[in-house]
């Protein structure tokens, strides 16, 4: 394996690790902030090793992207993220720095994040914009802790401010209600 390939592979792994951490932690923060009833978020030990499994890894240097595809699983401790694909977009660093800088990480297709205590978040896609520290998750987003559920069309998390927003969308013709829906069960019921 050449030095450039090793650097790109290392960058891909770091990107996937960052994606897993941000998506796992960020969606948990969103659930917690959307309602005090839905848990305190996905707790995680960032010092735990991160394992990434996929059917394939393709690095396209000309497009400055790396794609993990086919049954992607990112695991750190008890946290898990599954998706059909994980795409890391990077840019060459300026000023003689070696390596690449990660700009955006996207999970596409059947994105599902789970943690202990019956916590999960799911949607059809999720993006993390590294420079602005913004997470978006979309298409039939569902945040769950136990029997408590929040549903919406899109989730947006600003990791700088700690604010999260679930928005409604869709119309009756496409099966949506256009509204955010929450179902909360009191303790002991």
List the helices and strands and how they pair.
Elements: H1 3-34, E1 50-53, E2 56-60, E3 65-76, E4 79-92, E5 100-115, E6 119-129, E7 134-145, E8 148-158, E9 163-167, E10 181-183
Antiparallel strand pairs: 1-3, 2-3, 3-4, 4-5, 5-6, 6-7, 7-8, 8-9, 8-10
How would you sum up this structure, described in words?
By secondary structure, the protein is of the alpha+beta class. The protein has a single domain, classed as lipopolysaccharide transport protein A fold (Sandwich). Helices cover about 15% and strands about 50% of the residues. The protein has one helix and ten strands; from the N terminus they run αββββββββββ. Strands 1, 2, 3, 4, 5, 6, 7, 8, 9 and 10 form a ten-stranded antiparallel sheet that branches. It is globular.
Name the descriptors.
189 residues; alpha+beta; lipopolysaccharide transport protein A fold; ten-stranded antiparallel sheet; 1 helix; 10 strands; globular; disordered N terminus
In short:
The chain is of the alpha+beta class. The chain is 17% helix and 49% strand.
Query: Helix/strand/pairing class, anyone?
Result: alpha+beta
Give the overall shape, derived from the CA principal axes: globular
Helical amount: 10-25%
CATH topology: lipopolysaccharide transport protein A fold
Q: How many helical elements? A: 1
Number of domains: 1
| Radius of gyration based on Cα positions | 17 Å
CATH architecture: Sandwich
Distance, first to last CA: 58 Å
Order of helices and strands: HEEEEEEEEEE
Average pLDDT score? 74
Uncertain ranges: 1-40
CATH homologous superfamily title: Lipopolysaccharide (LPS) transport protein A like domain
Strand content: over 45%
Number of strands: 10
Describe the sheet with the most strands.
10 strands, antiparallel
Query: Class in CATH?
Result: Mainly Beta
